[in-house]
Q: What sequence folds into this?
């Protein structure tokens, strides 16, 4: 039986792992390593419980720090795990510092790297995530790609070996978990929310939170739109709001960070989503919710081309306009596979 070490560290990776680890059961020997990149219990431990992911065999407890410090600490710790376990593969997801650290540690030890969600590009190298994904793709042996656009990006960079277009593992997850969320989540009752009567907002990306001008402009837009907005607040964003002296109008309802099932329930029940998250943009698309993206570019260009996602950056007037008027009516196309990405990934690995 093949032995795989899977590196996880952040919310979107737990969600993807829920879909993939479920099909790996009894087929491969998978060891989960949690780097501790997301160390808030609401944003980490709860996912393992809710999504039925096996508890990690290794918890590295790295926590936050500068990019160099965090990645370096992870690299050291992951290398020790790989040397102790001697896996056949090391598997990484997405584009976080955990992803890059896992890929580099394995590559240096000549262990083949599996990259799930390979080939995404924003073409903005100022984003740490963009650097992480480019570097990870270039040291990976098996690259599992969610869309044809991502295949084309890899081809343009000379990467053609080991590339497999399988669809999006997050689509696998949302098909499964949206039904469970409807049965199990009581988030709407808890906060007295009604279907289609609120906008859901998430803000966490460093390019927005670390820049006082951008974060102030974003909240200026949210304040001026006068639309009922529910904001599960990332701890880092909460700190910056206080630091920058930003005030929120009464129509913005701040709630604690939520687990995945509660998040999916909120996404399913809201009228629109306004976010700077890559994963939430896709979940919006899967669930048929108009998405307003507070970034200057996105990796998920298909959602923009299809007309269900709009880029507003940190422009307050664009945010107001989109919140009040953006209501796509075009049919959503199927860019992200058929919900069997996880099974296809397993089949390729077993080959």
A:
């Amino acid at each position: 039986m093949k032995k795989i070490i899977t590196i996880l560290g952040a919310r979107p990776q737990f969600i993807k792992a829920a879909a993939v680890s479920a099909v790996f059961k009894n087929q491969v020997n998978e060891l989960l390593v949690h780097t501790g990149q997301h160390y808030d219990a609401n944003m980490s431990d709860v996912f393992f419980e809710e999504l039925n992911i096996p508890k990690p065999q290794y918890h590295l407890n790295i926590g936050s720090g500068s990019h160099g410090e965090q990645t370096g600490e992870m690299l050291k710790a992951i290398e020790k795990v790989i040397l102790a376990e001697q896996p056949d593969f090391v598997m990484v997801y997405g584009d976080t510092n955990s992803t890059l650290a896992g890929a580099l540690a394995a590559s240096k030890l000549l262990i083949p790297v599996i990259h799930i969600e390979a080939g995404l590009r924003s073409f903005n190298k100022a984003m740490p995530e963009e650097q992480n994904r480019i570097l990870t793709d270039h040291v990976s042996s098996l690259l599992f790609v969610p869309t044809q656009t991502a295949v084309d990006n890899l081809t343009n960079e000379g990467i053609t070996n080991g590339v497999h277009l399988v669809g999006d593992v997050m689509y696998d997850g949302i098909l499964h978990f949206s039904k469970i969320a409807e049965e199990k989540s009581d988030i709407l009752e808890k906060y007295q929310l009604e279907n289609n009567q609120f906008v859901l907002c998430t803000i966490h990306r460093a390019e927005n939170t670390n820049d006082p001008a951008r974060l102030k402009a974003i909240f200026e837009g949210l304040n001026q739109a006068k639309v009922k907005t529910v904001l599960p607040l990332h701890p880092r964003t909460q700190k910056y709001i206080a630091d920058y002296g930003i005030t929120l109008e009464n129509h913005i309802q701040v709630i604690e960070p939520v687990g995945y099932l509660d998040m999916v329930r909120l996404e399913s029940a809201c009228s629109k989503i306004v976010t700077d998250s890559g994963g939430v943009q896709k979940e919006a698309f899967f669930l048929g919710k108009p998405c307003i993206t507070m970034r200057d570019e996105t990796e998920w260009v298909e959602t923009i081309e299809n007309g269900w996602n709009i880029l507003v950056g940190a422009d307050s007037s664009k945010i107001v306009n989109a919140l009040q008027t953006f209501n796509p009516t075009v049919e959503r196309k199927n860019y992200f596979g058929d919900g069997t990405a996880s099974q296809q990934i397993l089949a390729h690995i077993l080959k």
